């Protein structure tokens, strides 16, 4: 007897001309069981031929993810098109926005203004207090200690590695507003990507003892290796100490800071605990300042850093969490008409540069949520 996972695998193998005789035989028997199976097959075939890059399937090796999709399918006696297609998308690891073409005959999201997705941009505050707006900008600046600062709205900010004329620390601050993102390379070669509504304060040239920066909001770091000089990221009451690694810190909420580690090893300390918590790759550490606790667990790290690559990756998150991220990126306000809407779960993978009405349209078709856009406010309610 074919289960849900088996028939999806068999259909994909058949469409790619890779099905075994046994798979074809079992697929034919499954199709003969009833009209629902035939309809499901037709929907999957239609979806398959509308994908631009089916080769992505070969890159998917997460059997656990496939089993989760199959488990969700078992709870559905009938398979509406959007559900089958969305499930197939998860298996293929592709963006689901192609589904929107199937709903062109339906009423779109009601909106009274056009809302643009976020874009590259920031404000650089020099050590003398001068503010430089980085939008369609390309210039070379010189700091008080002689360090050269290359400012480019496309490539980011790059600090020269030349030795500073003065040993005293002077700081720059980069502020990334709502609806923006930006990246920079510090004087030691460390690369930093800043998410919307974030701020980083850092020395133009690091001291001989350590490399310490101060973060509010969210940033992804690829720290230049230096075993003799630790790199420290301070976020309110938390310090993350590294020597060369890749990690992401989400410090939008100063009372609950999330750190996820991709490569290397880091140590995390908070003021209320007199100990350092070591992290290994794949760890997510939650630092709770109210409780004075640090808890870590192994996770799939990509959903936590997908923003850096221009993606929204939602893994069974509730709508309240999702809309908070959209608020920052699209620089909008969100109003929930009922509390039930806050808890609606959603799974999906979408490009951050998608127009918000299209993104909300797919969420609406794939969940129990309903949206309306009025001026700069997104109104959310449950169906």
Describe this structure in words.
The chain folds into three domains: 4-94, no CATH class; 119-303, Jelly Rolls, CATH 2.60.120.1440; 312-382, Phage tail protein beta-alpha-beta fold. It has nine helices and 25 strands. It is an alpha+beta fold and 383 residues long. It is 23% helix and 35% strand. It has a 19-stranded mixed β-sheet that branches. Mean pLDDT is 81; it is low at 49-107. Helix 3 crosses helix 5 (81-92). A hairpin with a 5-residue loop joins strand 9 (180-185) and strand 10. It is globular.
Short description:
It contains nine helices and 25 strands.
Features:
single chain, 383 residues, alpha+beta, Jelly Rolls, Phage tail protein beta-alpha-beta fold, 3 domains, 19-stranded mixed sheet, 4-stranded mixed sheet, 9 helices, 25 strands, 35% strand
> Helical proportion?
10-25%
Largest sheet: 19 strands, mixed
Distance between the termini: 36 Å
Structural class: alpha+beta
pLDDT averaged over residues: 81
Which regions are unreliable across 5 or more consecutive residues at pLDDT < 50?
49-107
User: Can you tell me the number of structural domains?
Assistant: 3
What's the gyration radius in Å? 24 Å
- Helix count from the secondary structure assignment: 9
> Regarding CATH, which class of the largest domain?
Mainly Beta
> How many E-type strands?
25
CATH architecture of the largest domain: Sandwich
Spatial shape = globular
Strand content: 35-45%
What fold name stands as the CATH topology of the largest domain? Jelly Rolls
